[in-house]
Fibrillarin-like rRNA/tRNA 2'-O-methyltransferase
Amino acid sequence: MSEALPEGVQRREFDGTERLATRGEPVYGEPTDGEWRAWNPHRSKLGAMLELGMDTALSGGETVLYLGAASGTTVSHVADFAGPTYAVEFAPRPVRDLLEAADSRERLFPLLKDARKPATYAHVVESDVDVLVQDVATRGQARVALENRQFLADDGRLLLAVKARSEDVTRAPSAVFEDVQAALSEGYEILETRTLEEYHADHLGVVARPR
Ligand SMILES: C[S@@+](CC[C@H](N)C(=O)[O-])C[C@H]1O[C@@H](n2cnc3c(N)ncnc32)[C@H](O)[C@@H]1O
């Protein structure tokens, strides 16, 4: 728990347990306390990365491109403390819920787009974003991160959750993680990795910056 939390994220007590929290309208039935809502690390890889004390370099107010937004569980928390937050998701069903989460969040911009085709949203997303968050849980996770590197500022950060089983269910997760890191190094310098096992089976959290 060494690293500082971004401004707008606090550890607060909910029912006697200290948990991460942001200020905003509830989205997924999470406990609330006044305007604060608990951020469940079991349902959020970025929440797990913060809970585990990874150095995300998030300080609050950043411009964020979030890939794999699903119904908005995590990206809603991000938009509670970040600046403009572009949320890419290619499945129409979860995007309906994502739009609802965006109703009360004026800095959250849902995009029904395929993260493997960045050219289709390059005209919408501003350049030099501070943070690229990726949780697509699909084959080719390193490739998606490399293809979206173009949006990141030179001193920006990639905050990536790698799901081993999405790459190959038959291989040992550690071998998959090695391959993904090797592929990533084509465009990123990896600063920190950490297994998210405590919260998400067979997932690796990665912090990297563009090289
Ligand atoms: C593990 S879920 C994301 C959960 C979400 N990040 C959260 O914490 O609230 C992965 C999501 O990525 C989406 N996804 C997978 N491949 C994608 C792609 N190429 N473009 C956009 N979304 C994609 C899936 O449809 C799914 O909703």
